[in-house]
């Protein structure tokens, strides 16, 4: 090969990882794959991943992972450009799939937050709401969690390479508790728990250590919040406490289910 010859193009699919309004935790989950990351790098050419390398190649991309919510006007333009350059786009984490904890601002006046937090709010360009990526562009798959689960991330990437749909469960955390033999903290101890209405993915980690689930994976596919509220009342929560219990990482997703009523379907795992 002569120096004047054009560089040989890689036959591997091109992977891009992008961040919007978020804490970087879901991107770090990819880095935390450690040994498995070497296998991923052997099958995918990682061409854009600011958390791992300062090298940033332009599109097109075969697979894009997007972390973070759309919270500024610049974000809207940027996610549209990324989508146009992407063959498959997967959102990762509560911020990208539900607007994140920053979506609490959706239920107040953003001007009040700006005036409280910033000395010169007139310098801040922001949207009044924090929204999921799917509110702005088509999304091929949503991987939920705060942060996402390492095993589920590997399953999504592997499924892409194999040309199949990811095998991500749609059941609730209660199902996971039963599978691992964990005693129900609500039944046994009267501990408030969002397990009955929360999408599985964490392996029912919190109930295994005696505390109630607090909904970091968002609403399960079929969620009946009105049936859960009397249990929260029984376990010592009033309406305000119950609302605060729900309004954390996936506030917008749970609020949407509340508005739709019993049996409403939360954010789908696949689109």
From TrEMBL:
Domain called NADH:ubiquinone oxidoreductase-like 20kDa subunit: residue spans: 23-159
Keyword Oxidoreductase applies: yes
Membrane-spanning segments: none
Pfam families in UniProt: Oxidored_q6
Keyword Oxidoreductase: yes
Classification via InterPro entries: Hydrogenase_assoc-protein (IPR051349), NADH_UbQ_OxRdtase-like_20kDa (IPR006137), NiFe_Hase_small_N_sf (IPR037024)
Keywords in alphabetical order: Oxidoreductase
Listed name of the protein: Oxidoreductase
Source organism: Streptomyces bambusae
